[in-house]
Each structure stands twice: as C-alpha cells, then as structure tokens.
Amino acid sequence: WTVLSETPTTFTITVTSEAGENDETVQTTLKFTYREKYPDETPLYEIVSQENLDDNDVMDIIKLLEQQAEENLGMVMIFTLVSAVQEKLNEIVDQIKTRREEEKKQKEREAEEEEKQRFHGTPVTIENFLNWKAKFDAELLEIKRKKMKEEEQAGKNKLSGKQLFEMDHNLDTSDIQFLEE
C-alpha cells in the first residue's frame, strides 16, 4: 500500500497470490483513485504492473474489478476489490498448475502412443507371409551356396581322413607295416 497523492486520494496496492507449485506466484499492482462522490460512484482503477500474468488474465482482472465495483456502489469497496483480485490470482495459480499437469499428462500419452507405434509391426497376411518366406528361403539358399563354396575351396587344399584312405590304398596297410617294424 503506497499513497501517491492526497488530492484526489490516489494509492497503489500490490496483490500477490499464494505460492503455487515450485513457489511460483502471480502478482499485480493496482492503482486506485477516489472520485468526488466515492463511495456512491466507483473509484478509478488500473493495473500498474503485473508479474507472470497473461493478457487474458489481466483482462479478466479488469472485468472482475468492474463487476465488483458496480455491485458494491454506496459502500466502501477497496477491501472488497482487493480481496476479489486476491482470489482471482489464486485461481490463476491453480489454473497454471492444472495446465502444467495436463501438459505433462499429454506428453506422457504422446510418449506412450509413440512407444506403441514403435512396437507395432506389419499385420501378417497370407500374401505378405509368402513374400517374406520366398525372400527368406532365397537368403538361406544363398548362405548355403556360399558355405558349400567355401567348403569346396577348403576341401581342395585339405582332404579329410576318409578321403585320403579312399584315394591311396597304400595307407590301408601303412599302420600294420609301422607296427611290424
């Protein structure tokens, strides 16, 4: 509360909301000027400064002040006006909290949908299964061909024991000759 002038009586009052989530607050400074016939006519009021308020919120506060001033004509109304603004600021903090929670839930839903899409595969039909099977069999056949080719190349350089005995019949009796000696 700061008095700016005596004639006409002009003063400012800073109104702050209760601390919300993460100790966030919204704040506004209201300037009131009494008219000659106050309280039988509304005081002049304006928002001098504001913190953390959107333009829509400022407009809502102005409308609220207008409505409350009209309802309280003939009575001292500054306390009523400031109390109404205080309640409105608390509502705004609650709305900010609710908005953040909704955004968080929306992000979680989007992440969940994205996760579902990641694990969602192609539906299996007879046609696409047969296409896959043909490609798979072709790949297996190619792998077997490569393996056989490698075995053939390795086989030319080195024969197995059975192949050696089948090719050279002298090896059939070589062990017996070795033992006799």
From TrEMBL:
It comes from Certhia familiaris (Eurasian treecreeper). Residues 1-92 form the RWD domain. The keyword Amino-acid biosynthesis does not apply. Residues 100-119 are annotated as: Disordered. InterPro entries: GIR2-like, RWD_dom, UBQ-conjugating_enzyme/RWD, ZC3H15/TMA46_C. Residues 100-118 have a biased composition (Basic and acidic residues). The keyword Phosphoprotein applies. Keywords: Acetylation, Phosphoprotein. GO terms for cellular component: cytoplasm. This is RWD domain-containing protein 1. It holds the Pfam family RWD. The gene is Rwdd1. Belongs to the RWDD1/GIR2 family. Protects DRG2 from proteolytic degradation.
